[in-house]
Design brief:
The protein is of the alpha+beta class and about 100 residues long. It has a single domain, classed as Ribosomal Protein S5, domain 2. It has helices spanning about 5-20, 65-95; strands at about 30-35, 40-45, 50-55. Strand 2 and strand 3 (about 50-55) form a beta hairpin. The longest helix is centred in the C-terminal third of the chain and has 33 residues, at about 65-95. About 20% of the residues are buried. InterPro entries: PNPase/RNase_PH_dom_sf.
């Protein structure tokens, strides 16, 4: 089973993908990243240029482990952003021909 935070990440990303797929002219696409372990979970929603829009976490102490969690979320978010950009390029190329 998946946690609420993992599900939240997927919901946020699904909304972003739906907006992109709708053809609306969007200046910046928000993408969420997830980091989870047995002791902590974190979801971070990023805008363009990796600006943080929101953080959902169960951390009690904000130490270096929290920083590592944010970095992992950023990497996860970047992967989705690459996939969305690839989709947009493919769609633009298809429409141009």
């Amino acid at each position: 089973t998946h946690s609420l935070l993992y599900t939240l990440k997927n919901i946020l990303n699904s909304v972003s993908v739906a907006l992109v797929d709708s053809g609306l002219n969007i200046k910046a696409i928000a993408c969420s990243g997830y980091s989870g372990s047995d002791s902590h979970e974190t979801v971070v929603n990023f805008a363009a240029k990796d600006e943080i829009l929101g953080i959902w976490s169960d951390f009690q102490d904000f130490d270096s482990t929290f920083d590592q969690s944010i970095d992992a979320c950023e990497n996860d978010s970047a992967q989705l952003r690459k996939e969305i950009n690839g989709y947009l390029l493919k769609k633009a190329t298809k429409n141009a021909s």
